[in-house]
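can u pls check wat happens w/ zinc ion
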Amino acid sequence: MDKIEHIGIAVKDLETSNKLFAGLFGTPHYKVEEVASEGVKTSFFKSGPNKIELLEATNPDSPIAKFIDKKGEGIHHIAFAVTDIVSEITRLKGEGFIVLNETPKKGADNKLVAFLHPKSTNGVLIELCQEID
Ligand code: ZN
């Protein structure tokens, strides 16, 4: 596993939070992307070398809606860059982690992604992401 690629934050209202985080970082978001299959709308910020992804639910069955219902707004996941997501999935399964996506799927920001169940990672949802080139 490589560096932290981004941190995902669940928000109730993307427009309001875009303004808030633009003020925090001193720079506006550089991209908005909807991932219909996940029921989320995302926006991305850069602050120095760091990337932050804001996630808003687009329907009540969205994992983000369920997360906010349960825990409220806040940090939703930590994403790590990997160079070979398929072999990382195999390795992590071998280590006993619960991989939610046996086959990586297309995520936001031109990435192949897979998630590890928080139950197997001390309550933290971990995203693996590999750049699609
Ligand atoms: Zn993410």
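The chain has a mean pLDDT of 95.
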